[in-house]
Amino acid sequence: MAGRIPIRTRIGIVGAGPAGLMLSHLLASAGVESVAIDTRSRQQIETTQRAGILERDSVRLLVDSGVSDRVLREGHEHTGISLRFSGIDHRIDFQELIGASTWLYPQTEVFTDLADARARDGGDIRFGVRHTEILGIDDARPRVRFTDADDIAYELRCDYLVGADGSRGLSRNQVPPAHRHQYFREYPFAWFGILAQAPPSANELVYAHSDRGFALISQRTESVQRMYFQCAAQEDVDDWSDDRIWSELQARVAGEDGFVLKQGPIIEKTVLPFRSFVQEPMRCGTMVLAGDAAHTVPPTGAKGLNLALADARVLAEVLERAIRNNDSSVLDDYTTRALERVWKAQHFSYWMTTMLHRHPDSSDFDARRQLGELHSVISSEAGSRYLAEAYTGWPST
Ligand code: PHB
């Protein structure tokens, strides 16, 4: 189209969240040029609260690929989690079971590290673009049209395109329905997430099952805490005063050990959508999908960000090979390798969710059965070990 400024690059990346930025960083290390765009501003991404737990290999990837070692200095190593039910804590000790840990290091920090690393290394990342259009994924000339914040129109021309624009992005719907399968599951509840100005109530994460529904006690800093409780899918945050939120959270963690949450002013309230989704295959022609654009997990297993980083790691390797050998057929390897992890994570996230949440139609039998399941996990080394392996992350393949 007349008036569009052409940009030529090897890999065009739609979406500059953790998947897109990690991919761009890894490609640059392998000598492959890319350009990433995002409709959000850097500040918008940096201030949107997301998950907080990194698997062992996600930490390694950030440090070993040279993004940053800040996670090791400012993140908190967690050597286990607590499964709390019938008002008692049951610790799953990852170190003792499998010699692994996770790190509490919020996604907003991961994003900042990645954006800083790309800026430091001269990466071409354009935030705040508008009017994005994807063209030509079914031929050898994929293109992305967009206008920048100053209304200048561009056409990005590349060898391969990566859709890393999240679950509400454009790219996954570019794949014609006849060429994709969308697997989908809805849950009849959501999470109410808060940030509170208060000291930590626990050193590690507490996943609490209760008759009133699930609650999760997480942390952010010495003075700000992150907590969640199961709520109705259509819950309105304005119906919840600070007092009402605290009494609900306290009721869900209360028990004979006298555990009480440290309270403080609530500075953010949001209802988080809750669903499981996978689109297969993760490739169509010259486009591949990465991160939430290809799959969504409910947050109970803390897998979303970790899957996005794992996709980027596999994809960087496969794209580098495709370019070096001028052979796009290797992109199918990406789908096969990524989906194995994705479906394991889907299962784990679904399992943690159904084991810990109260289904609105559940009977007394269902509630007692859940306790039976939780007792099975904590009293069996094999059961606890499965949880520890899945939570800290399967080894990279
Ligand atoms: C968080 O700290 O935001 C967090 C931690 C664990 C989860 C989900 C969210 O499973």
How is this structure best described in words?
The chain is of the alpha/beta class. It folds into 2 domains: about 5-75 and about 105-185 and about 275-350, 3-Layer(bba) Sandwich (FAD/NAD(P)-binding domain), CATH 3.50.50; about 185-275 and about 360-390, D-Amino Acid Oxidase, subunit A, domain 2 (D-Amino Acid Oxidase, Chain A, domain 2, 2-Layer Sandwich), CATH 3.30.9.10. Helix content is about 35%, strand content about 25%. It is built from 11 helices and 23 strands. It has helices spanning about 20-30, 40-45, 55-65, 70-75, 95-100, 105-120, 240-255, 305-325, 330-355, 365-380, 380-390; strands at about 5-10, 10-15, 35, 55, 75-80, 80-85, 90-95, 100-105, 125, 130-135, 145, 155, 160-165, 180-185, 190-195, 205-210, 215-220, 225-230, 265-270, 275-280, 285, 285-290, 295. A 7-stranded mixed beta sheet has the order 7-6-16-17-18-15-19, with helices on both faces. Helix 1 (about 20-30) links the parallel strand 2 and strand 3 (about 35). Helix 1 runs parallel beside helix 8 (about 305-325). The longest helix has 26 residues, at about 330-355. The model has no long low-confidence stretch (mean pLDDT about 95). P-hydroxybenzoic acid binds next to strand 17. P-hydroxybenzoic acid (PHB) binds near residues 52, 53, 205, 216 and 226.
